[in-house]
Amino acid sequence: MNPPRLGLWRVRDYRAWFAGDTLTQVGLSIGAFAFTLLGYYVTSDAFLAGLIGTVSAVARAVSTLPGGVLADRFDARRLMIWSGASAFAIYAGLSAMYVTGTLTTAALIVIAAGEGLVVGLFFTVTDVALPRIVGKRFLAEASAANQSRDAAIRLAAAPVSGLLFGVHPSLPLIVSAVARLGEVGSALAIRKDLSPEGLGDGAGVRSLAAGRRWLAVWRQPRTLIGLIVLVNFCLGACGMTIVLSQQQTGTPAWQIGTIQTMQGAGVLAGGAVAGWILRRYSGRAIVRLSICMITLAFTALLVTQSVPAVAVIGFVASMPLIPLNAVQGSYLALIIPDQIRGRVLSLSSLLGALAGGAAPLLAGALLEYAGYYLAVGVPLAILAGTAVAAALSRAVGAIPRRSEFDQVEPLPLSAGAIADA
Length: 421
Fold this sequence. Notes:
- Its main location: membrane.
- Keywords: Cell membrane, Membrane, Transmembrane, Transmembrane helix.
- 82% of the residues lie in helices and 0% in strands.
- By secondary structure, it is an all-alpha fold.
- It folds into two domains: 10-192, Growth Hormone, Chain: A, CATH 1.20.1250.20; 209-410, MFS general substrate transporter like domains (Growth Hormone, Chain: A, Up-down Bundle).
- Helix 1 (3-9) packs across helix 6 (125-167) and helix 2 packs antiparallel against helix 7.
- The termini are far apart.
């Protein structure tokens, strides 16, 4: 058996953290899909249902950066408790209102805003806490394990939530409430002090803009964040192009669902071999080869729209995602000073969310007004440029092997250190 893996799961606080984060993801995924169904079920109006989703998304975006400040100012264990308790109150209250027949459209909009605020405020908390729990040695492996779990949850959440909703619309909300309450119990089981370092380092470190100012100084984290945002943007654009183009050609919905399932299976397959990849290759090689593999896989979309072929393309393109994100995300977390890790990661999350929101719009516009080949070709060209940038980038070239992560130190935070850089 692989000793590092055994060592990771012997960390008691990591097991508690993993259980809590798993319950969080279950609650978020099942609850989000149920919220989508409930919007139309209550209003019987597609516009209002869409408005409810938009309100939640806007509230989440608005609260993401303040959430980074919270993660940098307070004990992450306490924040996990607040997160779980707040979400429990929202989902329990929502299910109670539905069961008692008091749920109105206005109330649903207000609850959607509250749910979005809670998600945004606490979204980065567990990610910020993870390096404090597992240390540098196990961070990449822990990240890969977490992302594999997230992929499995996302794959199962929609059908499970839909099945529960079909039995009774309150059931997925109750499941989400119970799961988020379990997050509170898991947080209480963590013994390690998860308070951020350097809370007294001055107003500049405590300010909302501290993460942005730090990123403005250091090119390496800017490059790493930019690369992953571009990759995820292109994945979103290509994925939406696949779905919409298949609909245009009259492909049955169940076959389109099969393509989506194969993409999820590809993510899980990549997660299954992530440990071996992390041991065998350097971080720089994993990042560069992963982006190249994604680019080459999507290039095949230019020559076929056959459902079986596109399903295989989606599988292959999705396989590198967990190794890529585990290496890039772990290394990025290690070079960010602990005092501002929450703000930098929340800014990265916000940029990713904005890019993810723009990707379907680009795909739809290109497919409608420029045709299939440009709809595939534009994100493919961006991916190819990203692959070249990764191959030439010093920031990527500095990512070591996982076994050398113990030697990675955060980039300086103080004004004096920045001036000397």
